[in-house]
């Protein structure tokens, strides 16, 4: 879907078409997007409401850096960013709210950082959406590859520029896909695979071993005949027990 607009109405049309293609709405536990409500509202208009919502870490960081440019003093700008980043990386949920209030109070004591303190209280009042203490370790591990790909697209392929032309963006995405496939090809020919790829390869090999192209079943007098291949003898599967049901009470008797 291509459009020159980026608002809730256009994204809702895309999500609605996605629901029709899938045959029904999706249900997710965690929804991650940028700090605006556009994608979240569009998702909830057609899909099930997620149980948790999170902001992308790089979108939060970008919003903070953009607002901090209003502070002319570089030292105070760096100090305010350090306080906000420490809050985001804090893993102690029990002490987070106390640390948040203390940081807001500290920023309000300076006339140059008071606007940033009000910005945190207003735009980022829902700390459960961006603070890492509200996210599990598994979620952070899954989010790290997405952040890595986003940085690669922006800094390597787009050369740090904001590309608005669709033709150039598609070309850069094709280059990223080519490099990823090339890296996988190199890893496939190495003697020692990474732990995650080795686990995937192991599961794939087990699945291939369980598949038998000549597998077939035939009904026999006592059960079924399982034929794995024309050269092997068939396996006989028979019923060796039966249940007698008397007044709703079942008893199993061995017939062998």
From TrEMBL:
This is MULE transposase domain-containing protein. The lineage of its organism: Eukaryota, Metazoa, Ecdysozoa, Arthropoda, Hexapoda. It comes from the Eukaryota.
